[in-house]
Amino acid sequence: MKKQNEKGSITVEASLIMPVFLSVILFFLYFFQIMLIQERVSIGLWETAKEISKYGYTYDAYGMEEMESDYYMSMTRKLLGGFLTEEKMKTYVPDFLLEQSCIKGKSRGITYLTEVGNVDKEVYLKASYDVQLPLYRFVLPSMHYVQQVKTRLFVGTTEIGLKEGEEDADDCTVYITKTGINNKIYHRVITCSHLDLKILTTTPSQATSMRNQYGGKYKPCEKCVKNAAIAEEKTIYVTTDGNRYHSQLSCSGLTRNVSEVKLSTLSGYRSCSRCGE
Fold first, then answer.
1. Predicted TM-score (pTM) of this structure
2. For the chain, how many structural domains are there in total?
């Protein structure tokens, strides 16, 4: 009877310890899997940002100003539409890896956002996803991860740009747009937020919960959307400081035709409230 009691005691202890031991092992396996995916996403975002930056060099090196409406807008649609980003990221984060991961939504669980500044020529990529550990879903909530990369288009600088600060204050270079001509407004810096629109790609379902940098909601553009129905998964465009979403990247609400002029040539114009001195 004494031996049977001892064997029974060891069996009970083992049955209590083994589940805890296996849970700890699985937790570390999930942890290393998450680290692997984070590393692949980080490398993929950086390599994709460099790939997008090459387009800026191609455009600037050949000085194709006369082709801007065709070539540049077509290129921008491709970039901002997320096609290049999503296709490039599949090289570093393949679908088969995500299907075996603990990311919610598996291969469709990672959302990519691509932003290209119109004036400052910055490329901004962001990947967001949620992680849910299968065996701990009733104990631990899902964890939200955001990884992002920011770089510049490979356009360099120009001699004119270096000498702008040496101009006479009474005859300095300012910037106007077609809209500015109608409103009699000029801008002192080309990086003014009225000129340098930060464009993001998203979907109608996501846009309902998004807010601009001032906390405002996005409403349909009166020019390109109006009252037309848009599919939930269709790509739409918003700006960080605007309050409208657009179905077309070529919408006048997203484009800025900027011209350099001498301040002395303008009559009756007033300075922009954001960038004016």
1. 0.48
2. 2
